[in-house]
Amino acid sequence: MIKNISNLGDAAIYCDFGPEVNEAINSNVINYFNCLSELVKTKSISGIDNLTPSYNKLIISFDLRITNFSKLKKIIENLDVKKNIKENNQKIDIPVCTDDGYGLDFERLSEKLNLPKEEILELYFGKEYFCYMTGFIAGMPFLGNIDKKIRCNRLETPRVKVPEGSVGITEQFANIYTFESPGGWNIIGKTPKKIFKKTDLKNPVLIKPGDKVNFYQISKEEFLKFNE
Amino acid sequence: MNNTYFEILRAGINTTIQDVGRNNLYHIGITASGAMDQRNYQFVNNILHNSINDAAIEFAYQGPLLKLNNGNINFAITGDVFFNIIRKDSKIEEGECYQSYTLYDGEQIDIISTKKTVYGYLSVSGGFDIPQVWGSYSVNTKAEVGPNNGRKFNVKDKILIKEKVLKNIKFKKIDYESNLDNIVRVIKGTNFDYFSSKAQGIFLNEMYSVSRLADRMGMRLDGPSLENINKTNIKSEGLVKGVIQVPADGKPIILLSDHGTIGGYPKIAVVISADLDKVAQLIPGKNIQFKEVNLEEAEKIFKKHNEETNRYLNESN
Fold first, then answer.
1. How far apart are the first and last CA of chain A?
2. Of 3.40.50.970, 3.30.1330.10, 2.40.100.10, 1.10.760.10, which CATH number belongs to B183-313?
3. How close B313 comes to chain A (CA, Å)?
4. Searching chain A, which residue's CA lies closest to the CA of residue B243?
5. For residue A1, what pLDDT band results from cuts at 50, 70 and 90?
6. Is B300 exposed, middle or buried (0-12, 13-18, 19+ CB in 10 A)?
7. Residue ranges for chain B with pLDDT beneath 50
8. Rounded to whole angstroms, what are the CA distances from A51 to B18, B23, B100?
9. Architecture of A91-225 per CATH?
10. Is A208's CB within 8 Å of B302's CB?
11. Nearest CA of chain B to the CA of A93: how many Å?
12. Is the whole-model pTM more than 0.90?
């Protein structure tokens, strides 16, 4: 359930689902997001411009010419999320090569975590991840939760350029850089799979909030030969 | 090539295609973009009887020098802009904003600069022949999203124009002058109480100024630092245009059209919708005085603002 609904300026609603970051709370955010997206798609609600789910919040921005805070707040409070829910979340497999040249931060990670590379990899690849949100840069998924033993802060000095496809970890999350961008996450490998396809106008983003992700390791040879 | 087009002889500082913006994609990290000054963008299409959502060329400070090829057109420019029309006989005619002009094959538009503001708009009767990307013409150069491969225009680029023959219709003139006062009305943000009561007072009473770090993504302000007494990072969450974030250095940043979709800095306030166009037009060095209003007041101010916009749009002359 939503803990508190307030306004973010005069043209957005701020839904707070509670202070913690966990899968249960985030699933709740995503259920509301899916439900409202459906209502926007079927034109059952008018005036909503954007829905932005994150770990424990849902921000709904709207066109003040068409609707306002109190009207939309009422709709959200009376939303029957269970009735409207559409299970459209998927399971996605992502290949990752962790060889030197792709996994850029194992030295730092081994030192900070006091674990050899092999053990970090075992803990990293040994579980299924959940997509909490997508954003920051187009299509970048925020995936959790990383095993407690391999949680590490971001780099003290962020990289000016992180290569496209890089898989990074920070604290309880993993992400994938969907295009070359500045960034401070610890890079453990690189995927040859396209996560964000700018030219795919219907479905540009591979991993969406609520999806489950399994990473699997590939060799450099397999990486270079990879064909979607 | 038989198409009518503008040939870019000088690109200007930041010349892009914009429209009302791109919606329903924040959840995958694609921001709205769109014209920085929505009112002047609407006016330029309105003067030419185009659809209100047609693509327009947005320029900042120095604009482009454009040569028309293969046709005759009508065009208009809005904003606070100094521009010339270079006729075929090399005669230079000084242009005025908010009215339409006829441009003949081979003639040029020289957009020399904006005057006391940042952004201006140019459109042509019948619109530009440009594809939409994800339902919008808007270009976001940082994410490389939008037509023209998500890039700003460069010298030698061509901008295709749909209609090549002049229509025998009377275009309109708008009698408008942008509001250039420096009072920016805000609603308290969701993290207003992260700041000391002294900082809250400073934010609402002292003067800030627009720094040189201002672009389509956002505007960093110079002025007194704001003391955060809680934490300088929050869990990343959704953002909207107009949000004023305060990172650890204590200097506010106003988010504008190309802002990131999520972020983790505390939000001290949000600019009200009615003042967004005004903020976007403030040039570096200009002072800003924030003034707090509540939601109800903001809605009333917007209603008035919107009625005023519509009055200009519906005027016929």
1. 40
2. 2.40.100.10
3. 15
4. A9
5. confident
6. middle
7. none
8. 22, 9, 39
9. Beta Barrel (2.40)
10. no
11. 19
12. yes
